[in-house]
Design goal:
InterPro entries: Csc1-like, CSC1/OSCA1-like_7TM, CSC1/OSCA1-like_cyt, CSC1/OSCA1-like_N. This is Calcium-dependent channel 7TM region putative phosphate. It is a multi-pass membrane protein. It is found in: Membrane. By secondary structure, this protein is mainly α. 62% of the residues lie in helices and 4% in strands. The chain has 36 helices and six strands. It has a four-stranded antiparallel sheet. A two-stranded antiparallel ribbon has the order 3-4. The protein is globular. The N and C termini lie far apart (85 Å).
């Protein structure tokens, strides 16, 4: 069991690590040769120029200005200086709202901590429950005297914790409601002020029914001309181009190797580079590297050309899905938010993702297989979560010196040393758990991709949801339950059954010491390591010395990265859960959480301003998930407090806690009905206003060329590919006048999709309909 001394050692290690990371960052960021690593966002915007192009030779690589070293902490006020409206223009609404998650943590926990430390801590400290407990073999430390464990069973002091639970709940709900209102208003204002984008006019249509008489493209055009005659503009069918995309990616990789060996040869022309053609270049025939990769690229070019022809000519490459664009935002909103057919499984419509957000490979997955894929992933996630309890139990064994001595008695002489004991109990459990979780976000993202989500934001939201559930079950409940069970096993075996709940009730608050060590490792040192960007720093200089030939190559080597929402948001939610659970139980944990939120806000604000370049913009679509998870953490905290008080003989006060989860649940229902629609649907009124204003400002703007190729698969957009026939099979009309593209020739002999008369009965002319 970690003591105050152990916590002090862990704090010293993590604070020292964080300071080293921050000092290293402060020095490295002002060196000219690292400028692209720590300020890539400004380079991508074309605002910042490289300091390597001017000045003396030494000053191009090393900062010789001693004054800048004295001002090494000026990045902190600079990160806080940019106002939020300017931050939204600079980095987008997603980034600005993401930062508000850290702010909401400070708004919730700073007042709660002040209240808890001024009221609950004195109440806990002045009690004598741990000395008077009958369970003498329950381990405890000085830090537990600050928790609810130190209050005698049946004491009237539990009324203080009950009142504080109500105060914490009301304050948390108030902050959540004000933030939900604020973010919803920010989202609507952002969408209203946003510049014209293709996704504002476009809907993704899936499960297009097959028609033996028409192609998918003709069927889509015919359906929308008939059912949305005044608003339909154009469409782009979806192709299964996954094989083509793989070839293009292979060509890109081969081109990188060619660039590398050409650059190597230009630096030393006396020896032409040679490679082995066998596996990983370990064996095989030795050949000229440049000639080999030139031949490989020529071969890939031929394969790409053949695959493109196959995609164009093969009807099976066309998926029953399409991106359909409309003349107005109003028309797109009506289509995206209504049912298109009497059969609810056909002509399924949803807002199209932003073009750069589309996850193209998943569009090739048949819609009917999505349910099966998601069922498989639900089962896989269940087993992943269940079997991860094994390493969690191992981590908890590290939290107890007794457990290590029992399993590894040969280490007894080493771990009995006070310093080693403090390091093992105060630092090691947190770092081991952190290492176990390091690959989990990537695994969950792969699972989300297998499920078939078609946008990057939906992929990240699903992975984040699963990561949150995983943290809740394994990191939180697993650590508390397995830790308590392992730690008190001997006590359980020697007690009667009715005494076991009391043992658990006392032991659960004691686990706060483990979570304190985890917060310091993950939330202090981990966040400080984020700003150092050690991995991008190393990879940039490797690429810059081996692969970079042009400024474009150098931009690609910068790798600014982005906010990994699926990895970072669930981590934040774990801190919300810990704070809300332990606020009325062990308030000593709250300052550690507050430091995390403050440090993370500062670091990520700096990274968003100077480093991260987001791949997409969802206009804070993730906020309902954030709100819902904080609410769930609040309800879990209330239920656990009820369970804890029920084991402490507080029979009179415990029933009053029953109202808290009910109140919280109905508060959530209110917020869901009041604010969530702003994140799910686009108001027709706002769409009409924006359309009207745009027509007034640009009455002659031709929307069709703007939308016509917005959603073509990226593999068809390179300069080598120019084929007018692609426009024909995509269902496009190239005429300048929208009115000349009203009807479509069709071979249909049935009326499967529309009650209107078939075009075949009217002939195949493309004349406009009579008015």
């Amino acid at each position: 069991m970690a003591t105050l001394g152990d916590i002090g050692v862990a704090a010293a290690i993590n604070i020292l690590t964080a300071i080293i990371f921050l000092l290293a960052f402060a020095i490295l960021r002002i060196q000219p040769f690292n400028d692209r690593v720590y300020f890539p966002k400004w380079y991508l915007k074309g605002i910042r120029s490289s300091p390597l192009h001017s000045g003396a030779l030494v000053s191009k690589f090393v900062n010789v200005n001693l004054g800048s070293y004295l001002r090494f902490l000026n990045w902190m006020p600079a990160a806080l200086k940019m106002p939020e409206p300017e931050l939204i223009d600079h980095a987008g609404l997603d980034s600005a709202v993401y930062l508000r998650i850290y702010l909401i943590g400070l708004k919730i926990f700073v007042p709660i901590a002040l209240l808890a430390w001024s009221i609950l801590v004195p109440v806990n400290w002045t009690s004598h429950g741990l000395q008077l407990a009958k369970l003498r073999n329950v381990t405890s430390s000085d830090i537990d005297k600050l928790s609810i464990s130190n209050i005698e069973n049946g004491s009237d002091r539990f009324w203080t914790h009950l009142v504080m639970a109500y105060a914490f709940t009301f304050w948390t709900c108030y902050v959540l409601m004000k933030e939900y209102e604020k973010v919803a208003a920010m989202r609507l204002a952002f969408l209203q002020n946003e510049q014209r984008r293709p996704d504002q006019f476009t809907v993704l249509v899936r499960n297009v029914p097959a028609d033996p008489d028409e192609s998918i493209s003709d069927s889509v055009e015919h359906f929308f001309l008939v059912n949305h005659p005044d608003h339909y503009l154009t469409h782009q069918v979806v192709y299964n181009a996954n094989d083509l995309a793989a070839l293009v990616e292979q060509k890109k990789s081969t081109q990188n190797w060619l660039d590398y060996y050409q650059l190597k040869y230009t630096r030393n022309q006396e020896h032409k580079p040679r490679i082995k053609t066998g596996f990983l270049g370990l064996w095989g025939k030795k050949v000229d590297a440049i000639d080999h990769y030139i031949a490989e690229i020529e071969k890939l070019n031929e394969q790409i050309l053949e695959e493109r022809k196959k995609v164009k000519k093969d009807d099976t490459s066309v998926m029953p899905a399409a991106f359909v664009s409309f003349k107005t935002r109003w028309g797109a909103a009506v289509c995206a938010q209504t049912q298109q057919s009497s059969d609810p499984t056909e002509w399924l419509t949803e807002w199209a993702p932003e073009a750069r957000e589309v996850f193209w490979s998943n569009l090739a997955i048949p819609y009917v297989s999505l349910t099966v894929r998601r069922l498989i992933m639900h089962i896989a996630f269940f087993f992943l979560t269940f079997f991860f309890m094994i390493p969690i139990a191992f981590v908890q064994s590290l939290a107890s010196i007794e457990g290590i001595e029992k399993n590894a008695p040969f280490l007894k002489s080493i771990i009995e040393n006070d310093l080693f004991k403090s390091v093992i109990q105060g630092f090691l459990p947190g770092i081991v758990l952190k290492l176990f979780l390091i690959f989990l976000p990537s695994i969950l993202m792969v699972m989300s991709k297998f499920e078939g989500f078609v946008s990057l934001s939906s992929l990240e939201r699903r992975a984040a949801f699963r990561y949150y559930i995983f943290n809740l079950i394994n990191v939180f409940l697993g650590s508390v339950i397995t830790g308590s069970a392992f730690e008190q096993l001997d006590s359980f075996l020697k007690q009667s059954a009715k005494e076991i709940p009391k043992t658990v009730g006392v032991a659960i608050p004691i686990k706060a010491t483990f979570f304190i060590t985890y917060i310091m490792v993950d939330g202090w040192a981990g966040i400080a390591g984020e700003i150092l960007r050690l991995k991008p720093l190393i990879f940039f200089h490797i690429k810059n010395s081996l692969l970079v030939k042009t400024e474009k190559d150098r931009e690609e080597a910068m790798n600014p990265g982005q906010i990994n929402y699926h990895a970072t948001e669930p981590r934040i939610q774990l801190y919300f859960l810990l704070g809300l659970v332990y606020a009325p139980v062990t308030p000593v944990l709250l300052p550690f959480i507050i430091i995390f939120f403050a440090l993370a806000y500062l670091v990520f604000r700096h990274q968003i301003i100077n480093v991260y370049n987001q791949e997409y913009e969802s206009a804070a679509r993730f906020w309902p998930d954030v709100h819902g998870r904080i609410i769930s953490a609040l309800i879990i905290a209330q239920i656990l407090l009820m369970g804890l008080l029920s084991t402490k003989g507080a029979a009179q006060s415990t029933p009053f806690l029953l109202f808290l989860p009910i109140i919280t649940f109905f508060f959530h229902r209110y917020c869901k009905g009041r604010y969530e629609p702003a994140f799910l649907r686009h108001p027709l009124k706002e769409a009409m206003v924006k359309d009207t204003l745009e027509r007034a400002r640009e009455p002659n703007f031709n929307l069709k060329p703007y939308l016509q190729k917005a959603y073509i698969h990226p593999v068809f957009k390179d300069n080598d590919y120019e084929d007018s026939r692609f426009d024909e099979i995509s269902g496009y009309c190239i005429e300048d006048s929208d009115e000349e593209c009203v009807t479509v020739p069709t071979k249909r002999q049935s009326r499967i999709n529309t009650p209107a008369v078939s075009h075949a009965s009217r002939g195949s002319s493309r004349s406009p309909p009579s008015k």
